[in-house]
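Example record for the data management plan.
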Amino acid sequence: MDPMKISVIGAGSSYTPEIIEGLAKERSSLPVYEIVLMDIDEHRLEIMTAFCRRFLDHIGCTEIRLTPATNLKDAVAGSRFVVTQVRVGGNQQRILDEKIPLKYGLIGQETTGAGGMMKAFRTIPVMLELAKEVEQNNPDAWIINYTNPTGLITEAVTKYTKANIAGLCSGGLFPGWYTAKALSVPAETVTYDYAGLNHLSFASNIRVNGRAISEDEFDRVAEAAARGGVDYNIIRALRLIPSPYLQYYYHTARRIAATQKVGRTRGEEVLAIEQEIFREYADPKTVTKPEALKRRGGGGYSQVALSVMKAVWTDQPARVIVNTPNRSAVRGLPEDAVVEIPCRISAAGIERLVSTHLPASVWGLVAAVKNYEQLAVEAAVRGSRELALHALLAHPLVRDADTARPLLDELLEANRSYLPQFSL
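Corresponding structural encoding:
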């Protein structure tokens, strides 16, 4: 089996050791000889490269060469997979994405609502530049995207380039984890139907070893899922297991009040956690992943990426939940709209495994948010204030015109240096 090169774009991320560890453990099926770590933040890149080298030595994996890079073209050249995890503007801009909507009495969140739109606006041009580089100079490569908001990023890339991309999120694993915990069964014995959008998805028809779970068992799974933030009684009423991000839609006032009571946003918490993590990464004595990484969130990060890479490289098909163009998988949504669904991944590409109607209880919400997403992607590409306003007016967490216009003005001004397409 030929050896391969993999690139990690945004390698200064605290998550990078997760993917490095996963690749090291899977060398029997993914014969990686070189991993290019690319980031524009040279300080973080230097720390991360040095730590990952120590980490690989510590676990006895000396066959993988780590190559730091700050140039995108060099990083992408010859790579079979390009893992993307970029954060344009860093955590400081994330904090503004969260705090500014809160001033207007709205949800302030990294991927959801007005804050998520601004992250998309900053990120889409960067990801399109990357995707076009892959398309033109390495067209057989696959982009393995973890950059948030992954649904909007994947939609932009699939609409405006021909690059191969799988938009990933660990959230598709959660229903299996909830079921395994609630019913004391191995997670690999759990299967379920799944459909929706990234951070707006629902699992149904849960099975263990092919057997449909009972009503009582579903209630126990609902108890486990409720720890993610959506009330148990809501989950029972829906008879669906929702993404934890549904808490921002079903319990909006409560979530706003909770953030205001704490007095800091999740972005501010993450900034403090990352400072602690990077102090440990920078310590030459550190050879294992810091305990603080568990508080950073994002469990299952490498698991989904490795499943996709192995399926493509070995041509041994795998069922993986990915973000990909709809193509009638979720009926009623546009054909080119990116949805989050189970797919069969192989060397031939992505094959959708569902063709379903969402229940009426959640259909309206999903359709409304998808309408917002499509407007937001077009606004980001065209640099259109008008379309950006349309997107906010369409979003269920904003809508109010008296709020949307000043909110948009303030968000755009706060992101001025990252939004050249808007000619601010």
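Summary line stored alongside the record: The first strand starts at residue 4 and ends at 9.
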